[in-house]
Amino acid sequence: MNDASPPTQADPGPPDLDAPDAGRPHLGALLAAVERTNELLQRVLAEVATTPSTHAIFADAGYVYAAAGRLVAGTEDRRTFALDAEGFIDAFIDKARAIFPDSRLLRVYWYDGARRRIHTAEQQRIAELPDVKVRLGNLNANNQQKGVDSLIRGDLESLARHRAIGDAVLIGGDEDLVSAVEAAQGYGARVHLWGIDAVEGRNQAEPLLWEVDSQRTFDLDFCRPYVTRRTEGYEPYGEAGAGGPAPGRDEVRFVGAQVAAQWLAARGRDSLAELLPGRPYLPGPVDQELLFEAEALLRLSLRAHADLRRALRDGFWEHLQAQY
Question: Which ranges carry the NYN domain (predicted)?
Fold first, then answer.
């Protein structure tokens, strides 16, 4: 048998670290990579340090109307008072600017309800304001908002998740908003609850008050410039003290056509097609809107004069039919 062992290779010894084929990156290349990484990190940190923080305002219009109407006009019925939404929004923006001086405004989200989510003329005007986005929930037969809370939660959570805002101003009072607050806080945003003084008791849910990071309420003096009773300046026809003669049927028909033009511009031809088959009858909400808008233009009440109300509807229908 051949007992000879296979020849052994000589020990190569420790690797030469300076050799380019040693199987490891050259030490000089490693140092250069580290320096480049540090330079990139310094640039990122410098950019973050100079980027201003951002805040947004989330306003539940239903709460603003109800709370401000009750405080200033003594009623929550929107039909009986006018609210200067543009003035209110500007006041909220100014207040936020004072509270967050080192932060920039992303935008104001104005949440309201509308039938079939079609903007009213007033909501269209608000949507045209700079830095304002109108978001619409639905409005049921009892004029109650539906879906607004879920819209607030979706926007608030999304902006917080993407680090688009650091502070969120929430103007509302519904307990259903607690989940929106929790979601935003889970992503690191601070949520500040703003409200309007209640005539008695509270108009914001206690669980909501417990959950937010800070609270602030606005008093009567703050709200008074932005709320006006619609009945101020109206003269009821046929009653003592009425100023001037009642307008004629032609004048009222013309006002009806004016309101119809505004209605059509706000809702579009699809809504007109739905309305026409019911002529000469108007759905209750449309009829009420027509009456309130006409009284605002005339600065007089039509409640006691059925003949003028008929002329008003005639003018409304005549304009719509001419556009179909």
Answer: 56-200
Q: Find the largest Cα–Cα distance for the chain.
A: 140
Is the Cβ–Cβ distance between 303 and 238 less than 8 Å? Answer: no
pLDDT tens digits, one per residue of 141-184? 555 666 788 899 999 999 999 999 999 999 999 998 999 999 99
Is 281 within 8 Å of 219 (Cβ atoms)?
Answer: no
Fold of 51-229: Rossmann fold (3.40.50)
Integer-rounded Cα Rg, in Å, for the chain is 33
Q: What is the DSSP string of 79-98?
A: GGEEE-HHHHHHHHHHHHHH
Q: Say if CB 52 and CB 103 are below 8 A apart.
A: yes
| Best CA proximity match to 81, nearest among 309, 243, 236, 234 | 234
DSSP code for 239: S
Beta bridge partners of 216: 194
| Residue 56, Cβ density class (10 Å: 0-12 exposed, 13-18 middle, ≥19 buried) | buried
